[in-house]
Amino acid sequence: MNFVAIDFETASYSRKSACSVGMVKYQNGKKVDSFYSLIRPPTLYIRPDFTAIHGLTVEDVKDAPTFAELWHDHICPFFGDLPVAAHNANFDVGVLLATLEWHGIRSPDLLYFCSLQLARRAWPSLRSHALNNLAKEFNIEYKAHNALDDAETCGKIILKAVERFKSSTLQELLKAANSKMMMIKGANIRKTLSHDEINQLLVAIGAEPIDGDISIGEKDNQGENRR
C-alpha cells in the first residue's frame, strides 16, 4: 500500500495562493517519511478570514521559499512515481495545477485518488465525512488545517479503509470501494496551454477555474465541506 498523502493551505480564494504544504509517504501501509513547509504565495497577502482558519500570517510566510523552489527540490522528488492522495483531492490537485501554471512549471504525469470518496464508500452511515469528523470517529488526534497534520490524517483514514475492506493493495481497495484512480498527463503548462485551456483542465477534474470565486472551506458537489 504505497502512496503520498498531501495537503495544501491557501492564502486567499485563488488556487495559486498556496501558503503551506504537508506530505506524508506511506510504503507497505507504513509511514516512512514526511515533509512540511510554508510557502511564500505569489502575492504576499493572506486574507484575515483564512488566517482565522489555518493560523498563518504574512509574517509567517514572508521569508518562506516559493512554490517553484519547493517543487524542484522537495515536492516533485517526494512524489517520485507514487500515486497521490488527498481529502477532497479535487481541491488539492486544483491548487497544485494552478500553482504549477503560475510558475510555468511542467506538470508530471500524476496518478491521484480521493480519501473523501473512499470514506463515503467505507462508512456510508456517518453523517459527515469531513476530515475532522472522521478523526473524531476514529480517535485520531490532529490539528485541523495544519497541512502536515491534515496529510497524515488523510493517510490514516485511507489505512482505516484498507482494514474496512480487507484489501492488500491499493488497486483492491479502490475496486472494493467502487472508487477510481485518476490521472493527469504531464505538460509544460505555460508553454503549451492557454489560460482557458488550463481552466478547462481544472474543470475536467471537478476543480474551479483559476481565480474563481471559491473559499477555503468550499463545498463539494454533494454539499459537504472539504474537511
Please provide a written account of the structure.
With 227 residues, the protein is an alpha/beta fold. The chain has a single domain, classed as Nucleotidyltransferase, domain 5, CATH 3.30.420.10. 41% of the residues lie in helices and 19% in strands. It is built from ten helices and eight strands. The protein has helices at 48-54, 58-61, 67-79, 89-103, 115-122, 131-137, 147-165, 170-176, 189-192, 195-204; strands spanning 3-10, 18-27, 30-38, 84-86, 106-107, 110-114, 182-184, 187-188. The strands form two sheets. It has a six-stranded mixed beta sheet with strand order 3-2-1-4-6-7. A two-stranded antiparallel ribbon has the order 5-8. α5 (115-122) runs parallel beside α7 (147-165). The longest helix is centred in the C-terminal third of the chain and has 19 residues, at 147-165. The two termini are 24 Å apart. The model is unreliable at 212-227 (pLDDT under 50).
